[in-house]
Amino acid sequence: MHTGKRTLIALVAWLLATQAQAIQISSAGQSWSVDWSISIGTSGPLSATSTWIVSSFSTSQIVLGIDITNTTSLTGQLTNADITTFGFGTTPNAKSSILTAGTTFGKTGSGSGPQQTFPGGFKQINVCIFASGCSGGSVNDALHAGDSDYLKILLTGDFSKGFANLLSFPIKFQTNLGSFHAGGCINKDPSCTPVPEPSISALFGLGLLLIGLSQRRVRRIAAAARRH
Length: 228
Fold this sequence. Notes:
Helices cover 20% and strands 37% of the residues. It is an alpha+beta fold. The protein folds into 2 domains: 1-18 and 197-228; 21-194, Immunoglobulin-like (Sandwich). Strands 1, 5, 7, 8, 10, 11 and 12 form a 7-stranded antiparallel beta sheet that branches.
């Protein structure tokens, strides 16, 4: 296999791994934590933590209680850091609705477009939880640094196999330094390293790879032409 192809396969595997965090639920009473930490240089990190509990589980409905806290510490450079949106993917697919609205988060839907895209490039996000809209919205409506919120959501789908997988857990921070996105880490998994804005870093890396492969191909063609 050519080195370029091996590199491309490795890049694709890395992209999948950055969004591979998942948990399987199958009964009421299950609980877990999801944490987020996004390094933004000397101004960060942005951070949040959450606790999730399955209030009820049936073949067609799941009720989840979510307690989320924005644990970011503001600095002279980082003067505001607000969570506008968070969510997760599901397998099998599910639809969501709000049972108990939080003080901040009171709306839910799926990601945007046919691929259910979440800000930052996450795909197949069935559940997007927000105050203003899945893409973000006003920071006045967001969860500010140091604040917490609690809500309950209802998932509706075919859970007749007795389980459902929740995955990725992306989040969006809107700050005075820009917007930042990352997937969540479940139960403080030491192997989890959230990667900010996977779609942007992916496109950048893929672009560099394709440029390199293209240049190598041009050099090979030129060398072959000189030999003839």
